[in-house]
């Protein structure tokens, strides 16, 4: 940060403890610059140049951040950086000097083992903590030097060196009248030496420093000062400069040696770096780091307006992944730019917009009268997506889900508000209007999900997954033709979850492929055993998720399972969701053809429940359509019966077998059997059961039926 601002903060520190007052002087007069920073609450409010260099940061990134923003999540002791850091700061705020070892991280990710000392002070009657950072890594410690050799050189050589220095130099007397200048001083400021000598910088309008300015006071009191100033050329133009001043006593006279350099290019570079650090390169919007600054400012300002509320909206684009997958990232980037432009055009006057990354955007509404105003604004944002985004004649339809957290009553912390809005956004994806305000129910659901996710990571290694089996019956002769393997998870507390309760979470944590192939192997091995014991014509049906089917090594893994279990491929039925066919149509068409080469049957699960493409369906090698149970449950309604009849006729027209799911009564079974030849599955024929129970209740009966049939044939 600018030395001037840090000096103002540092010079205003106060303490009634003599030791602390003396410590301030010692730290300020240290020959080697000591990294120092000030904290109010739990946030940095300032730091000297040494601290910024130590953390490889800049003022804009450092101020308003916290000590644990520059720390790993856990310290080497295993303690949370946030909890441990806040505990130590609270100790210091009680008036104690606190020292401890700490592992920091620079902004570039470099580990910084550090000894921390916290000093309690007052700043404008408010409690603050001065932090001293002492590197513990010997590699970053500087060697002290007894002599730099300059005192051994001839004075004439020193004079020539100063005269030809690229840095501007001018020397003044005790009244600040200029006694000597070098060439760089004349070149940079546009004066000749004659025009400068015997005049004061103030008379020449070289700078805006006067006798009461902080640099002059520091120079008179401490004998030295350095910092950033504005300088003026002879034509009146101004430029930023870095200046250092030092008071020197020689021959019973007082002199002030001033050196400065034009830092215009450096400032331009800093601006470019800040632009890169604070703004998203693709859209030009503020990025995540900048958002934190915006949010902190809004939180501070709303404290002065207690009747107002602020809102943070977290937007996630619905359908964007399909655009990236189908048209490539280049098109996806153009869509994101169009979304950013539309948000800016329609919302800029009322909200601060930022892009966090990917397809995630945020809007900060700093001052709202009530929740109704926030709701109306969010509905307006949703309406922005009613019109498609057009690129090169191609129209792209997107939606968005919006999660909302509010300040200050839900939180005063920017990161916590962002987390709340993010959690609400995921809940909004499942809500009818795609808008959700963060509340206790959402928090509890998120905590429950997190708990399940944590347990799910270890479920396979703990052997908590198992398969249950349900028979599939020929509606014409009531014979079992296949069994479907269904995945279950028995948690440590004994609770048994069905697949639809945890499969999406397996997809989310990336475990679905591994668990899915385990289930396939178990099912094939079990049916291979039943072939030997009961009936070798039975088929096994196994569900495959979209992520499994799209895995580049799916066919390799499938063949390994078939070889390992010695299971005949013509007795395997792979079930897939209807949506899997249309997400990546070319890939899926090629995969289905490869499966048919292996004589594997293909079934489409929950047919009719989603969006169907009948034209596409007729071109794919599909063997079975599983009619969704919702249609079977409506057979007692005239319209429901007609829908089932139409689906069955469609299957027959396409020469595809149908399997009616969810049959629970004899009346449903009889009615479906009259509609055409096909198969049925549901509680009417048997509940899903473990392998032992399924064998005892279903397969043993099948064996008895077969033995009776053989006996009748022989006797006949």
From TrEMBL:
Residues 449-702 form the EAL domain. PROSITE patterns: EAL (PS50883), GGDEF (PS50887), PAS (PS50112). InterPro entries: Biofilm_reg_signaling, EAL_dom, EAL_sf, GGDEF_dom, Nucleotide_cyclase, PAS, PAS-like_dom_sf, Rev_trsase/Diguanyl_cyclase. It holds the Pfam family GGDEF. It comes from the Bacteria. Residues 308-440 form the GGDEF domain. Residues 154-200 form the PAS domain. This is EAL domain-containing protein. It comes from Shewanella youngdeokensis.
């Amino acid at each position: 940060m600018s030395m001037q601002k840090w000096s103002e903060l540092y010079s205003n520190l106060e303490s009634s403890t003599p030791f602390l007052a003396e410590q301030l002087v010692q730290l300020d007069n240290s020959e080697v610059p000591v990294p120092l920073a000030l904290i109010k609450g739990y946030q940095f409010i300032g730091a000297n140049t040494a601290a910024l260099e130590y953390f490889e940061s800049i003022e804009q990134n450092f101020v308003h951040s916290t000590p644990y923003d520059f720390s790993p999540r856990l310290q080497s002791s295993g303690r949370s950086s946030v909890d441990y850091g806040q505990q130590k700061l609270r100790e210091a705020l009680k008036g104690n000097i606190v020292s401890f070892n700490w592992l920091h991280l620079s902004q570039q990710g470099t580990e910084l083992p550090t000894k921390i000392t916290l000093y309690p002070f007052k700043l404008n009657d408010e409690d603050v903590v001065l932090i001293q950072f002492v590197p513990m890594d010997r590699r970053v410690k500087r060697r002290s030097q007894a002599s730099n050799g300059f005192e051994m050189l001839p004075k004439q050589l020193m004079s020539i060196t100063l005269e030809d220095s690229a840095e501007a130099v001018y020397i003044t007397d005790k009244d600040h009248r200029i006694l000597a200048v070098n060439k760089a001083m004349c070149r940079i400021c546009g004066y000749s030496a004659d025009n400068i000598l015997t005049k004061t910088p103030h008379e020449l309008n070289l700078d805006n420093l006067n006798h009461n300015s902080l640099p002059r006071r520091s120079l008179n009191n401490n004998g030295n000062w350095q910092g950033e100033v504005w300088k003026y050329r002879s034509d009146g133009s101004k430029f930023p400069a870095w200046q250092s001043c030092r008071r020197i006593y020689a021959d019973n006279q007082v002199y002030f040696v001033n050196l400065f350099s034009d830092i215009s290019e450096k400032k331009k570079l800093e601006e470019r770096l800040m632009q890169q650090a604070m703004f998203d390169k693709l859209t030009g919007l503020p990025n995540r780091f900048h958002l934190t600054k915006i949010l902190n400012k809004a939180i501070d300002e709303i404290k002065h307006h207690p009747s107002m509320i602020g809102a943070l909206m977290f937007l996630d684009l619905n359908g964007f992944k399909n655009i990236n997958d189908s048209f490539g990232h280049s098109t996806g980037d153009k869509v994101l730019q169009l979304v950013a432009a539309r948000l800016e055009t329609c919302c800029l006057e009322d909200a601060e917009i930022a892009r966090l990354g990917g397809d995630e955007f945020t809007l900060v509404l700093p001052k709202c009268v009530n929740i109704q105003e926030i709701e109306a604004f969010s509905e307006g944002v949703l309406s922005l997506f009613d019109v498609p985004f057009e690129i090169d004649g191609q129209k792209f339809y997107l939606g968005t889900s919006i999660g909302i957290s509010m300040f200050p009553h839900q939180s005063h912390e920017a990161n916590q508000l962002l987390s709340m809005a993010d959690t609400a956004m995921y809940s909004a994806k499942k809500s009818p209007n795609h808008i959700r305000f963060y509340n206790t129910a959402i928090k509890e659901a998120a905590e429950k999900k997190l708990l399940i996710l944590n347990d799910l990571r270890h479920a396979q290694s703990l052997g908590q997954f198992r398969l249950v089996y349900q028979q599939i019956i020929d509606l014409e002769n009531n014979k079992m033709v296949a069994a479907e393997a269904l995945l279950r998870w028995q948690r440590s507390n004994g609770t048994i979850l069905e697949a639809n309760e945890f499969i999406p979470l397996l997809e989310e944590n990336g475990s679905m492929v591994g668990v899915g192939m385990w289930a396939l192997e178990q099912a094939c091995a079990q049916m291979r055993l039943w072939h030997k014991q009961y009936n070798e014509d039975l088929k096994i049906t196994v569900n495959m998720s979209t992520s499994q089917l799209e895995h580049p090594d799916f066919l390799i893994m499938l063949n390994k399972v078939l070889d390992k279990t010695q299971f005949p491929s013509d007795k395997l039925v792979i079930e897939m969701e209807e949506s899997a066919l249309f997400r990546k149509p070319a890939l899926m068409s090629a995969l289905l053809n490869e499966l048919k080469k292996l004589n594997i049957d293909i079934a489409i699960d929950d047919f009719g429940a989603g969006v169907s493409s009948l034209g596409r369906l007729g071109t794919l090698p599909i063997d079975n359509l599983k009619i969704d149970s919702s249609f079977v449950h409506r057979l007692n309604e005239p319209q429901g019966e007609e829908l089932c009849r139409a689906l069955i006729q469609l299957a027959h027209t396409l020469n595809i077998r149908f399997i009616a799911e969810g049959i629970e009564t004899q009346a449903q079974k009889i009615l479906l059997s009259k509609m055409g030849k096909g198969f049925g599955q549901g509680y009417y024929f048997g509940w899903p059961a473990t392998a032992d129970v399924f064998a005892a209740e279903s397969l043993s009966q099948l064996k008895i039926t077969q033995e009776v049939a053989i006996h009748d044939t022989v006797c006949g």
